[in-house]
Amino acid sequence: MKVIICIGRSCHLKGSRPVVEKLQALVKENHLEDKVELGGTFCMGDCVNGVNVTVDGEKHSVSPDTTEEFFQKEILAKVQ
Predict the structure, then answer these.
(1) What's the rounded Cα separation, in Å, for the pair 23 and 17?
(2) What is the per-residue pLDDT across 44-63, written as a single tens digit (0 to 9) for each?
(3) Contact, 7 vs 41, CB < 8 A?
(4) Conformational region of residue 61, where left means phi above 0, alpha means psi within -120 to 50, and beta covers everything else
(5) Cβ atoms within 10 A of the Cβ of 58, count?
(6) Which of 2, 5, 6, 48 is spaced 20 to 30 A from 21 at the CA atom?
Protein backbone atom coordinates (compact mmCIF):
# COMPACT_ATOMS: atom_id res chain seq x y z
CA MET A 1 0.00 0.00 0.00
CA LYS A 2 1.37 3.40 -0.95
CA VAL A 3 0.41 6.40 1.20
CA ILE A 4 1.47 9.85 -0.03
CA ILE A 5 1.14 12.93 2.19
CA CYS A 6 1.20 16.45 0.79
CA ILE A 7 3.92 18.56 2.38
CA GLY A 8 3.33 21.68 0.29
CA ARG A 9 2.95 25.08 1.91
CA SER A 10 -0.83 25.03 2.40
CA CYS A 11 -0.87 21.49 3.80
CA HIS A 12 2.15 22.29 5.96
CA LEU A 13 0.17 25.14 7.52
CA LYS A 14 -2.75 22.76 8.08
CA GLY A 15 -0.56 20.27 9.94
CA SER A 16 1.11 17.92 7.49
CA ARG A 17 4.12 17.46 9.75
CA PRO A 18 2.11 16.10 12.72
CA VAL A 19 0.09 13.96 10.26
CA VAL A 20 3.32 12.47 8.84
CA GLU A 21 4.76 11.85 12.31
CA LYS A 22 1.55 10.20 13.55
CA LEU A 23 1.29 7.97 10.47
CA GLN A 24 4.93 6.93 10.85
CA ALA A 25 4.31 6.02 14.49
CA LEU A 26 1.10 4.10 13.70
CA VAL A 27 2.75 2.12 10.90
CA LYS A 28 5.58 1.17 13.27
CA GLU A 29 3.26 0.37 16.22
CA ASN A 30 1.22 -1.95 14.01
CA HIS A 31 4.32 -3.57 12.45
CA LEU A 32 3.26 -2.60 8.93
CA GLU A 33 6.65 -1.40 7.68
CA ASP A 34 6.68 -4.14 5.03
CA LYS A 35 3.11 -3.46 3.89
CA VAL A 36 2.75 0.34 3.97
CA GLU A 37 5.04 2.74 2.13
CA LEU A 38 4.83 6.35 3.30
CA GLY A 39 5.94 9.13 0.99
CA GLY A 40 5.64 12.86 0.57
CA THR A 41 4.91 15.17 -2.32
CA PHE A 42 4.34 18.84 -2.91
CA CYS A 43 0.98 20.36 -3.85
CA MET A 44 -1.75 17.93 -4.85
CA GLY A 45 -3.97 20.79 -6.03
CA ASP A 46 -6.71 20.55 -3.39
CA CYS A 47 -5.57 23.26 -1.00
CA VAL A 48 -9.05 24.18 0.25
CA ASN A 49 -9.42 21.13 2.48
CA GLY A 50 -7.14 19.68 5.15
CA VAL A 51 -3.87 17.86 4.57
CA ASN A 52 -4.13 15.89 1.34
CA VAL A 53 -3.26 12.21 1.62
CA THR A 54 -3.61 9.55 -1.04
CA VAL A 55 -3.90 5.84 -0.35
CA ASP A 56 -3.08 3.90 -3.51
CA GLY A 57 -4.18 6.95 -5.52
CA GLU A 58 -7.43 7.62 -3.63
CA LYS A 59 -7.45 11.17 -2.23
CA HIS A 60 -8.41 11.94 1.37
CA SER A 61 -8.42 15.05 3.54
CA VAL A 62 -6.83 14.56 6.97
CA SER A 63 -6.04 16.77 9.95
CA PRO A 64 -3.76 16.10 12.91
CA ASP A 65 -6.92 15.40 14.95
CA THR A 66 -8.35 12.86 12.48
CA THR A 67 -5.12 11.03 11.61
CA GLU A 68 -5.65 8.06 13.91
CA GLU A 69 -9.25 7.54 12.75
CA PHE A 70 -8.08 7.83 9.12
CA PHE A 71 -5.33 5.26 9.76
CA GLN A 72 -7.77 2.77 11.31
CA LYS A 73 -10.35 3.13 8.53
CA GLU A 74 -8.31 3.66 5.38
CA ILE A 75 -5.03 1.86 6.08
CA LEU A 76 -5.25 -0.69 8.87
CA ALA A 77 -8.64 -2.10 7.81
CA LYS A 78 -7.52 -2.48 4.20
CA VAL A 79 -4.02 -3.85 4.74
CA GLN A 80 -4.96 -6.76 7.00
Answers:
(1) 10
(2) 988 888 999 999 999 999 99
(3) yes
(4) beta
(5) 8
(6) 48
